[in-house]
């Protein structure tokens, strides 16, 4: 098994009186894809957002337990959240390019973190777009508005934007749910390539997708982590009946 990039221990999250995450213990190995599956409202996306502290801005949220990234607690008082989010990238369900040029979308993050040299920004933009497998499609239109791209291209652009700050962990919240099958296939091929350089956690409702692209799968239900294991084991020999029912479509 690969080294552990991140783990959580007794992670609880409350929104006011609602107990949304209930003592989650999970390990995320380096250079692997970990899929989070489970019915809507079971805590998958909320859990994902605890990994780069996106829940901090939510009113009445209370988080206890540990989230350890490279051996450091990301909820420690001295943690620089801006630096944390540079290290932990995020790709959302719907493509959300900024209303600016393709180039400026990619250069935005490095500029925020202090990079001003044009030659360096040019290199970052090209490499990020290459890493997201979209460079050849946009290299002649970098000054054109990003919103003019197709949905699938916009999502790959958003992945490139996340890669521009050189993260080590990449979080993806249903990144293909708004895309057509061809674009979905391209994103899945991209994820397969990205695992060589990044640790990836992806939320998906698509069981076939989880089976195709992930190394490990975690099944969430009503705020609990029911089962975690290799994707092969989870799909072929689940230990919990609820996991089996969900995967086979008998759930509920």
Describe the protein:
With 252 residues, this protein is an alpha/beta fold. It is 36% helix and 27% strand. It has helices at 44-50, 81-87, 102-112, 118-131, 135-138, 151-163, 181-194, 207-213, 231-236, 241-247, and strands at 4-15, 18-29, 33-37, 61-69, 72-73, 88-91, 169-173, 199-203, 216-221, 224-230. The strands form two sheets. A six-stranded mixed sheet has the order 6-7-8-3-9-10, sandwiched between helices. Strands 2-1-4-5 form a four-stranded antiparallel sheet, with helices on one face. Helix 4 (118-131) crosses helix 6 and helix 6 runs parallel beside helix 7 (181-194).
List the defining traits of the structure above:
252 residues; alpha/beta; Rossmann fold; 6-stranded mixed sheet; 4-stranded antiparallel sheet; 10 strands; 36% helix; 27% strand; globular
Short description:
The chain has 252 residues and is an alpha/beta fold. It contains ten helices and ten strands. The chain has helices at residues 44-50, 81-87, 102-112, 118-131, 135-138, 151-163, 181-194, 207-213, 231-236, 241-247, and strands spanning 4-15, 18-29, 33-37, 61-69, 72-73, 88-91, 169-173, 199-203, 216-221, 224-230.
> Strand arrangement, largest sheet?
6-7-8-3-9-10
Helix fraction, binned, reads 25-40%
The top-level CATH class of the domain at 4-96 and 168-247 is Alpha Beta
Mean pLDDT: 94
User: Element order, helices and strands?
Assistant: EEEHEEHEHHHHEHEHEEHH
What is the CATH superfamily classification of the domain at 4-96 and 168-247? Answer: P-loop containing nucleotide triphosphate hydrolases
């Amino acid at each position: 098994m690969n080294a552990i990039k991140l783990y959580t221990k007794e992670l609880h999250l409350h929104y006011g009186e609602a107990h949304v995450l209930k003592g989650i213990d999970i390990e995320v190995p380096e250079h692997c894809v970990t899929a989070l599956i489970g019915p809507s409202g079971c805590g998958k996306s909320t859990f994902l957002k605890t990994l780069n502290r996106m829940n901090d801005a939510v009113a009445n949220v209370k988080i206890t337990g540990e989230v350890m990234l490279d051996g450091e607690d990301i909820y420690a008082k001295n943690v620089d959240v801006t630096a944390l989010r540079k290290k932990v990238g995020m790709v959302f369900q719907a493509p959300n390019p900024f209303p600016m040029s393709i180039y400026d979308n990619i250069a935005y993050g490095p500029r925020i973190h202090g990079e001003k040299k044009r030659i360096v920004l040019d290199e970052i933009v090209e490499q990020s777009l290459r890493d997201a497998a979209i460079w050849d499609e946009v290299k002649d239109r970098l000054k054109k508005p990003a919103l003019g791209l197709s949905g699938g291209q916009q999502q790959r652009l958003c992945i490139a934007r996340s890669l521009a700050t050189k993260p080590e962990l990449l979080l993806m919240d249903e990144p293909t749910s708004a895309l057509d099958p061809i674009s979905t296939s391209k994103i899945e091929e991209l994820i397969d390539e990205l695992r060589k350089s990044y640790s990836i956690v992806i939320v998906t409702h698509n069981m076939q997708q989880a089976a195709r692209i992930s190394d490990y799968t975690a099944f969430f239900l009503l705020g609990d982590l029911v089962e975690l294991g290799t994707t092969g084991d989870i799909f072929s020999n689940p230990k919990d009946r609820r996991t089996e029912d969900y995967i086979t479509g008998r759930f509920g």
